[in-house]
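Per your request, structure below.
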């Protein structure tokens, strides 16, 4: 009977100890989960892990590009009776621009779409060429917000996402102005 009582007492002591360990572990995991959730909420806009790759948004830069829209005659348009041309903000040849980002990117050359003049369409913006006999081309100025996203791969040696494998650049058009400009 004494052995039975000892075994029951030992069993009760083990159950109590195990319950205390579970409660302590649950409290720790709840705190850890809350910490992780807090970190994820703070970094959601700047960092995301997608398919084993960490995507980190860099600091945006504002870039202004200017030039003549593609698709125009070399010498421009000349008229004495007046005319309109249609400008489309997408398409045409790109303008290469050197852009400076924060480290680790530094100086990067990017291409920006300046737009094009296209005949035979009603999709776009009509610009009037003055009827004064001078030569005109549609001149465009665009301002973009460029946001780099750095993509890091998980490094098995350091156990961190610290191997930069790629960078993408999101270009958001902030403003656009265009007008018929005298050439030559």
């Amino acid at each position: 009977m004494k052995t039975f009582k000892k075994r029951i007492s030992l069993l009760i002591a083990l159950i109590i100890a195990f319950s205390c360990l579970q409660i302590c572990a649950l409290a720790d995991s709840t705190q850890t989960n809350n910490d992780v959730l807090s970190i994820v909420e703070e970094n959601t806009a700047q960092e995301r892990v997608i398919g084993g790759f960490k995507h980190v948004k860099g600091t945006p830069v504002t870039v202004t590009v200017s030039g003549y829209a593609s698709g125009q005659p070399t010498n421009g348009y000349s008229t004495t009776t007046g005319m309109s041309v249609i400008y489309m903000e997408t398409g045409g040849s790109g303008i290469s621009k050197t852009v400076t980002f924060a480290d680790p990117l530094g100086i990067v050359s990017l291409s920006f779409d300046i737009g094009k003049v296209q005949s035979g369409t009603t999709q776009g913006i009509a610009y009037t060429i003055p009827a004064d006999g001078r030569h005109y081309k549609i001149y465009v100025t665009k301002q973009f917000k460029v946001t780099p996203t750095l993509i890091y791969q998980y490094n098995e040696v350091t156990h961190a996402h610290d191997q930069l494998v790629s960078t993408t650049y999101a270009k958001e058009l902030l403003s656009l102005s265009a007008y018929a400009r005298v050439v030559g």
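Residues 16-44 have pLDDT under 50 and may be disordered.

Regards,
D.
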